[in-house]
Design brief:
Structural class: alpha+beta
Number of domains: 2
Shape: elongated
Helix content: 40-55%
Strand content: 15-25%
Largest sheet: 3 strands, antiparallel
Distance between the termini: 60 Å
Length: 235
């Protein structure tokens, strides 16, 4: 199996992930934690003999002001609250993620960029963690339970782009709904055809018990089912 077929197998198997970091403690949104992503993907990579190698291609740092905060200081034995500037470091990274097939030594390389800001000793780690999490989410198209608030660029879309995005989303939603209706209609029609195979009232009841509720309650099914019931009773 080629490395890309293995990656496709992982993509097919990786589950939907519910955002497991709730709002609160200063957070304005929920998100999928790095641990949840790795717990879902790592076993699948191991199963298919794939190793993920991470390399930092470029790293730049910028000293920035974070929000101000108050600290307590003591002056002549009296406690005072003083506002100070908090400095942090912004790390901008270009990375190369490489999947290595341990069975064939084939490799698949992907470039990715990420940023992270935190205290001097944590900013790099924040950027790396952010990059790994979103690289895996985007590479394997892992669905989460709502729109990602970390999609920074969405906040800066023009009204025209937002309208186009909404139109696309609406078309996809309508197409999905139409496909679901077509599927259910076909299943109802199939159930109606099978009514003729029911020769007794007990068989008819047993057949209905095997059907999903939406079929049993559909007028398109209940009408012919009632007619078949009357045919059996009067036969």
């Amino acid at each position: 199996m080629s490395i890309y077929k293995k990656l496709l197998a992982v993509k097919k198997a990786v589950p939907y992930l519910q955002k497991d970091k709730p709002k609160g403690n200063g957070l304005q949104y929920s998100y999928v934690t790095p641990g949840a992503v790795l717990s879902a993907v790592n076993p699948l990579l191991n199963e298919h003999g794939l190793f993920l190698k991470t390399e930092v291609v470029r790293c730049t740092t910028t000293r920035i002001f974070a929000k101000k905060k108050y600290i307590d200081v003591y002056n002549m034995g009296q406690k005072e609250s003083v506002m100070i500037d908090v400095h942090e470091t912004l790390f901008d990274l270009d990375l190369k993620f490489t999947f290595v097939d341990t069975d064939s030594d084939d490799q698949a390389e992907f470039l990715f960029s990420a940023s992270g800001v935190n205290g001097d000793e944590k900013g790099l780690g924040s950027a790396l963690t952010y990059a790994e999490r979103y690289f895996l989410l985007k590479t394997f198209n892992i669905p989460t339970d709502d729109d990602d608030p970390d999609a920074f660029q969405t906040k800066h879309m023009s009204e025209e782009d937002k309208k186009a995005a909404n139109d696309t989303k609406l078309k996809e939603s309508n197409a999905k709904a139409a496909a679901e209706i077509e599927k259910r209609t076909a299943e109802i029609n199939d159930a109606v055809k099978k009514l003729a195979n029911c020769e007794t009232v007990d068989e008819l009841k047993m057949f209905k018990d095997t059907l999903p509720e939406y079929i049993v309650k559909s007028k398109a099914f209940t009408t012919p089912a009632t007619a078949r019931y009357n045919e059996i009773k009067t036969a």
